[in-house]
Amino acid sequence: VAMRFSRFARINPYIQQYQFTVLMLLVHLLFIVLFGVYVSFDELYAMPTAANDNTYLNSKYPYYMGTHVMIFIGFAYLMAFLKRYGYSSISINMLLACLTIEWSVLCRGFFSKDFAEIGTISLNIDQLLRADFSSACVLISMGVVLGKLSPIQYVIMTLIEVPASTATEHLVMDAFQINDAGGSIVVHVFGAYFGIALSLAFSSKAQRGHEHDCSIYHTDMFAMLGTLFIFVNWPSLNAATAVTAEEHHRAIINTHLSLVGCTVATFLVCPIFEPRKKFNMVQIANSTIAGGVAIGTCANVVLDPILSLALGSIAGVISVLGYIYLTPYLSERLRLHDTCGLHNLHGNKNIIEMKSFVA
């Protein structure tokens, strides 16, 4: 027994050293096998036919690319505001987004009618677009626990969250038939509170007020760069799942108006409530895009532009106040450390979204 224990003790350090590599190798090989067994091109696009032209692709690809830019550039640089965590923020963002796309295609496929009827998963650009939505959900959770987890823990988080978010989306949109064009409920709210649950489990007293839990000049510039990419592409995200041309039109206009109103309100409110009476770049970088979340649920059905401006303005005010008052309270009283303050950006807008949807 002693010899076996000593042999395990010699092997164990190597297992610990390469555990991330081993896990990623096993997961990626499993995904490759599952893709080979179950995934195939949609029949309409598998072979060239008269019905298979570029009309549908040309109509969907701009929305897909806009969402893609938000995920891989906007989210990555927005979370690069920490002065000692920029490399990990951008690189782990890319890893989790790619891993989520693979896993989401499979999970959504297992819930699809094609899989239930013929046992295969049909792959098209809509599936990839939905996979980007799942990536946004995972990256929101990542932002809440940014700097707290190791790479292997981020991977495990992704493997758990993607099936959970897919099941939630199926329940909300298919079972309850709730309109959620921009994924404000099934993406933003779910991702925020999933991350908050993780933060409750992994936050420690030492993390609150840590010397590295802050931004500096050039990291704030990176965060603002990410904000600009998200700002200009968010109408694509909210309009991506719209069905008719009229819904696309309304979603784009309403999202843009909501973002504009949110930005103006953020710059208006920030110096009033900020203790130093100055603009705070963390608040500016995050609160200016809160309008995209607030309008997401009803972007394709809101008809009056004044509602879009009002929703965006209210979202900006609530987000700024959340960063100033709510985030410190949650950290000090409830031991809930939200690294990026994404509860203020993605989470507490749920009340506004649902009220606007009901109205």
From TrEMBL:
<dbReference type="GO" id="GO:0072488">
    <property type="term" value="P:ammonium transmembrane transport"/>
</dbReference>
<dbReference type="InterPro" id="IPR002229">
    <property type="entry name" value="RhesusRHD"/>
</dbReference>
<dbReference type="GO" id="GO:0008519">
    <property type="term" value="F:ammonium channel activity"/>
</dbReference>
<protein>
    <submittedName>
        <fullName>Ammonium_transp domain-containing protein</fullName>
    </submittedName>
</protein>
<dbReference type="Pfam" id="PF00909">
    <property type="entry name" value="Ammonium_transp"/>
</dbReference>
<comment type="similarity">
    <text>Belongs to the ammonium transporter (TC 2.A.49) family. Rh subfamily.</text>
</comment>
<keyword id="KW-1133">Transmembrane helix</keyword>
<keyword id="KW-0812">Transmembrane</keyword>
<dbReference type="InterPro" id="IPR024041">
    <property type="entry name" value="NH4_transpt_AmtB-like_dom"/>
</dbReference>
<dbReference type="GO" id="GO:0005886">
    <property type="term" value="C:plasma membrane"/>
</dbReference>
<keyword id="KW-0472">Membrane</keyword>
<dbReference type="GO" id="GO:0097272">
    <property type="term" value="P:ammonium homeostasis"/>
</dbReference>
<dbReference type="InterPro" id="IPR029020">
    <property type="entry name" value="Ammonium/urea_transptr"/>
</dbReference>
